[in-house]
Amino acid sequence: MSLKDCEYQEERRKLKRRIFCSVLAFIFLVLFVIFLIYVILRPSKPHFVLQDVTVLALNTSSAPGFLTTNVQVTVFSRNPNGRIGVYYENLDIFATYRSQQITLPALLPTTYQGHKDDLMTGMVLLNVKIDGRVKWKVGTWISGSYHIHVNCPAYISFCERKDCIGFGPTVKYQLVKSCTVDV
């Protein structure tokens, strides 16, 4: 091997090292910028609170396996981010009972009512759910859409407690319950 060949191989080795170091430095720079943006903005999910539930009609005495209801809810949302805005898109809100949507008449599967079940304790667990899309806004930049799922559990008694106000067939429950949010 001649001296010229050795110099050529040494130059190739140096070029490969420079390219590798440049790519590595670029990756670290991108990661550092992402980390810096995260530290400055501190993004967090929006908070939802179920403030009250008004049960306009709740019929559990119809045919077995059927539940009919008409519910009005007040949900409060708060964006805790100081520098990031939130766009809510296509939010659907509905109530569920045992994973079945009940804001419209819904057929429930045949079930067994065991000991200490909902009707035995004089209360039912309704879940008020919100499904939709959100976009984040930082300055003039707007992100892509993300799915948001909000679940607000509400234990509804049959107006034997002090937190419900009854007016004929209508019952209003003052709740102020925190909701879980998944983005």
Can you offer a commentary on this structure?
With 183 residues, this protein is of the alpha+beta class. It folds into 2 domains: 1-41; 47-182, no CATH class. It is 23% helix and 49% strand. The chain is built from 2 helices and 11 strands, in the order αβββββαββββββ. It has helices spanning 3-41, 118-121, and strands at 47-59, 66-78, 85-97, 100-101, 106-107, 123-138, 141-142, 146-157, 164-167, 170-178, 180-182. Strand 1 and strand 2 form a beta hairpin. The longest helix has 39 residues, at 3-41. Residues 104-123 and 163-168 have low confidence and may be disordered.
Question: Assembly type of the shown chains?
Answer: single chain
Largest sheet: 6 strands, antiparallel
Compressed to H and E, one letter per element, the order equals: HEEEEEHEEEEEE
Task: Work out the count of structural domains.
Answer: 2
Helical content, roughly? Answer: 10-25%
Query: Structural class per helix/strand content?
Result: alpha+beta
Strand content: over 45%
Distance between the termini: 63 Å
Mass-distribution shape: elongated
Mean pLDDT: 70
| Overall number of strands | 11
Main location: membrane
Transmembrane segments: 20-41
Protein name: NDR1/HIN1-like protein 1
InterPro entries: NDR1-like
